[in-house]
Amino acid sequence: MYETLLTEVRDRILVITINRPDKLNALNRKVMSELEKALAGLIGDENLFGAVITGAGPKAFVAGADIGEFVGLTREEGKALAKRGQDIFFSIERSPKPIIAAVNGFALGGGCELAMACHFRIASENARFGQPEVNLGLIPGYGGTQRLTRLIGKGRAIELLITGNNIEAAKALQFGLINDIVPPESLVDRAVTILQFIGTKAPVAVAQCIAAANAEGSAGGYHQELEGFGICFGTEDVKEGTAAFLEKRKAAFKGR
Question: Where in the chain are the domains?
Fold first, then answer.
């Protein structure tokens, strides 16, 4: 189905592996186009609950964008390239179905931006994170300046952005960039297990949690929370959840 991706379904979880290990899984136009297609398939398939995104091979999640595609771009062409990347990564961030980044090895430049667009991140011990675009005379273009600042704070984010330095997994965990560190051999399995657990929750409630957490600004966030709270009360799942709680049994959510 894809030239640059491997896909596998495990118990309603779509595992997407970026498969360019000889290029350290660098993001080129083909990868981005196929990633967009895979994400649309995730959203459109009612049998899928969530997804894991990872990279092929032991060295890299995604070591960055394919720099060869940057050569000769004009100002407007560069802006259009960034806009497309932002749009695809917004589709990850705004997905109503949870998406976890399983970061194996280098997550640099566009790879770090891809990981940050996911709803949360787990990483192997050998993972490295950074936004080294300044070394190319550039800045991150796929949302990295914004998401990095939100995740680790303005001071730390600006330091990483303007030095181009990268950080190891332990420091990424300390900074709040990742949620957990996992042995490399069990990384994807751990991400799938987390999603299977989330899959026992009410899907509409999960989607509304994501939407509210993503809402821009405090006023917008509180408004989105109100809307989501009301939407949940219009579902059968809230009736099932409250009944199960009162009857001291496990809820059986149906996603409606």
Answer: 5-198, 203-246
